[in-house]
Amino acid sequence: MSGALSTTLQSHGWWLASRASGLVAFALITVSVGIGLAMAGKVMRRPGLSKKLMRIHEHAALAGLIAIGVHAATLLGDAWLNPGVAGVTVPFAMGYKTFFTGLGVIGAYLAAALGLSYYVRKRIGTRFWRKAHRATVVVYVLGLVHALGAGTDASAVWFRWWVILTAPVLGGLFVYRLLGRRKPHPAAARREIPRPSNRVIEEAA
């Protein structure tokens, strides 16, 4: 039994490591994006909760980036896939399921750019950073399409249930955020209401 396990690890070890790190990365990105949408939409407003959620959001994003890096690096050791450096760094350069793996590479770059931009937001401008950070939901969508199209576990029941349970939640939070942005702030709405002039008041009297 131990001999068979050793042989399996030797021949498929890199593939198993890449598979596991990819799943971990997708789970962490899902959590990070979900918390980010909840905070942006101000769904949870309990005192002291925002700081805790922000820490979880940040740590999940960083851990997700590390898992993405491990996912790409371990693919290089897969003798069957043999993607080469270009295959894991250049979008649509890998021969295996080119479209879906290409989307995964793009998602990885976007995740890195948006995640690490948090630490330079003062240099690039907080307002610009906030607008750019809205694209984090695109990272989730790209990761989901990549996992469904190129992932080995895409047909697994547990993975399908994970998507079924989390995708509608993130979709609902995203829509709620969009609707919340369109709704004017009460103070702004009051400022927009035209006040009657003195002449109108006199005529009404």
What would you note in describing this structure?
There is one protein chain. The chain is an all-alpha fold. The chain has one domain (2-204). It has helices at 2-40, 49-75, 84-89, 98-116, 121-124, 126-133, 136-150, 157-182, 186-192, 198-204.
The major sheet is characterized as:
none
DSSP strand count: 0
The amount of beta strand, in percent, is under 5%
- Helix-strand pattern, N to C? HHHHHHHHHH
Low-confidence stretches: 200-205
> What structural class do you assign from the helix and strand content?
mainly alpha
- The CA-CA distance between the termini, in Å, is 98 Å
Task: Determine the fraction of residues in helical runs and give it as a percent range.
Answer: over 70%
Give a brief outline of the structure.
With about 200 residues, the protein is mainly alpha-helical. About 75% of the residues lie in helices and about 0% in strands.
Helix/strand layout:
Elements: H1 2-40, H2 49-75, H3 84-89, H4 98-116, H5 121-124, H6 126-133, H7 136-150, H8 157-182, H9 186-192, H10 198-204
Helix pairs in contact: 1-2, 1-7, 1-8, 2-4, 4-7
